[in-house]
Write a sequence for this structure.
């Protein structure tokens, strides 16, 4: 996914806030897709269509200082080769947690996945 496509999905929910990071990913077992956006004040999760990027509504928006990421992302390796799957645990303001697999696309894109995860960890300072 290009940065322009991610920004397009998040734009209706930003309230003139500058976007620090935007990540496309799969939730849970990979059957749902979402776009996670980080601004100076909030973290937003927008539901997306599965095969293409288009907004299907805001799932939640939490204050940035109340959202935390797991200590480090978990990369999935098979026979010592990186598969392109990286799992990030996210704790919301209400204390619930979920797992996001940031991916630029369904197949390939290993460098894009690592780039998205790095941008996400640089934007959200809280850890658990």
């Amino acid at each position: 996914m290009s940065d322009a496509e991610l920004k397009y999905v998040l734009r209706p929910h930003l309230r003139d806030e500058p976007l620090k990071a935007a990540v496309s990913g799969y939730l849970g077992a990979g059957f749902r897709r979402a776009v996670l956006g980080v601004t100076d004040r909030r973290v937003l999760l927008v539901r997306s269509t599965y095969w293409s990027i288009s907004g299907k509504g805001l799932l939640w928006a939490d204050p940035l200082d109340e959202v935390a990421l797991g200590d480090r992302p978990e990369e999935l390796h098979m026979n010592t080769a990186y598969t392109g799957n990286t799992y990030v645990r996210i704790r919301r303001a209400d204390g619930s947690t979920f797992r996001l697999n940031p991916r630029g696309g369904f197949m390939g894109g290993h460098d894009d996945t690592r780039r998205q995860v790095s941008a996400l960890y640089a934007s959200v300072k809280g850890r658990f």
Remarks:
- The chain has a mean pLDDT of 88.
- The CA atoms of residues 48 and 110 lie 21 Å apart.
- Helices lie at 3-10, 110-123.
- The beta strands are 19-27, 32-39, 42-48, 55-63, 68-69, 74-78, 81-91, 97-102.
